[in-house]
């Protein structure tokens, strides 16, 4: 599977997002109204008020922000395959996006490079691009996708790859890791906890560790898809 793509040409990533304001009451009156309009179908479906569903604000690029981007790539050193993991995280979203964008432009700008994540096509990549545009940052080639044909976009989505054309259901990264026997350390938080950990505990390092685990799992899943051996923990370098 995917034999035409070399594993060392792929940048794996995952992002963690939170609401731009922790509480619905902190929004301006105009944003409260726009949030209500943006989520009206969800309100009707779940029989909830705009305030009740505000906990989901972090998944919308217009109402959320990125607090962590974790990346990893495979390289060979002295004949040994290794994974190098690097995270961009902090309260200053523009700064972390600028640093991440510079890395993409410098190291992953060629036509032979690929960006890979779980649901990256519908969430991570669009979210990153939208937030970069909002901050007035240059879009790296890897994220500058408007006007491109689908086959011209070098994004690999492990969720989409697993579907093999079946679009009826969502398969979580945790489920795929489990059935493929990919060892994953137990997390002390889940995606649903990220906003609380950020806004109430201000524990960015805890979020970073959680994000890095998912990024490494995505890389291991791609190894399974390509029938390659996993990278042992001692060969995973976190910088």
From TrEMBL:
CDD domains, A to Z: DNA_polB_like1_exo
Keywords: Exonuclease, Hydrolase, Nuclease
Alphabetized GO MF terms: exonuclease activity; nucleic acid binding
Predicted 3'-5' exonuclease PolB-like domain: residues covered: 62-218
A Pfam family that the UniProt record links to this protein: DNA_pol_B_exo2
Organism domain of life: Bacteria
Name of this protein: 3'-5' exonuclease
Species annotation: Cryomorpha ignava
């Amino acid at each position: 599977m995917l034999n035409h793509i070399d594993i060392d040409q792929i940048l794996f990533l995952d992002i963690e997002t939170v609401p731009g304001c922790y509480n619905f009451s902190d929004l301006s009156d105009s944003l409260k109204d726009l949030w209500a309009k943006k989520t009206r179908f969800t309100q009707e479906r779940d029989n909830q008020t705009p305030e009740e569903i505000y906990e989901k604000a972090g998944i919308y690029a217009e109402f959320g922000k990125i607090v962590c981007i974790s990346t990893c790539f495979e390289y060979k050193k002295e004949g040994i395959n290794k994974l190098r993991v690097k995270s961009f995280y902090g309260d200053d979203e523009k700064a972390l996006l600028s640093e991440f964008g510079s890395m993409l432009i410098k190291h992953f700008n060629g036509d032979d490079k690929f960006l890979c994540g779980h649901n990256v096509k519908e969430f991570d990549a669009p979210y990153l691009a939208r937030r970069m545009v909002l901050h007035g940052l240059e879009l790296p080639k890897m994220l500058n996708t408007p006007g491109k044909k689908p086959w011209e976009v070098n994004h690999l989505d492990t969720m989409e790859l697993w579907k093999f054309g079946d679009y009826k259901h969502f398969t979580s990264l945790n489920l795929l890791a489990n059935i493929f026997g990919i060892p994953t350390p137990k997390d002390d938080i889940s995606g649903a906890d990220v906003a609380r950990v950020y806004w109430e505990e201000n524990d960015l390092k805890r979020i970073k560790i959680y994000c890095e685990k998912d990024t490494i799992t995505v890389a291991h899943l791609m190894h399974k898809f390509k029938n390659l051996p996993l990278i042992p923990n001692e060969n995973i370098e976190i910088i």
